[in-house]
Amino acid sequence: MTPLVSMRRALEDPDLFGAILAGPSWATWRVVLIAGMGEALTDEERETWAALTGREREPGERAEELWAIVGRRGGKTRGIAVLGAYLAALVDYSDILAPGERASLPIMSASTWQASKAKQYLTGIFATVPALGKLVESETADTISLSTRVDIEIRPASFRTARGGTSCAAIADEAAFWRSDTSANPDVEILNAVRPSLATTGGLLAVISSPYARRGALWDAYRRDYGPKGDPRVIVVKAASRTMNPSLPASVGDRALERDPAAA
Asked: Which residue from 198, 174, 199 is spatially nearest to 187, judged by alpha carbons?
């Protein structure tokens, strides 16, 4: 796989994502995406990175897994939609895919309705950025097919439907709220089912979620890889809602804390 443009340049270019994650309120998300793609950060950005990950420096190589544990209204879906658009549209997989083969970029959530929200952001990106819109070959309710030979697909979070095929990346939405390991469709098994599809492409597994309970795949990733002793190719970001979205009124969080401190 070969990036056609760096993530930093894509985020700065007004003809790409420059207007999608623009301004100071999206600066933290830009740091996460740039470092996640293995690109260098500035000294100022490294301070932000350390606060988010507990690590002094960025990995310097493309991450295998990115876990973003961020409070509600923290911009998770919009930020991850930009990452998905970048990986689907601005990376060349022709040296990996067999003749006639297409790569998938699944968006998995507890329901297709929830996953469709991420697809709405992606549809908006391709509709408002002419350079990217030209890549869209077709679109249905659950799939965006690009001329890059990548299909962005909505899928329910199921270990049965996650198996098979070749994926250039996979997005797991609100994973802490998938069925638990006491059910017939545990979150750990779903992610284990999708990881082999990423092996050929070296694709990124991106997991975004609000925190919920000290169990399951999200909690395991935080406990294992957050901070300086974690796997350098596995990034775990932990941040409050207003850290990632400073435009969120402080009163929203204050009222939530008053109503239910634990839930907030």
From this structure: 174
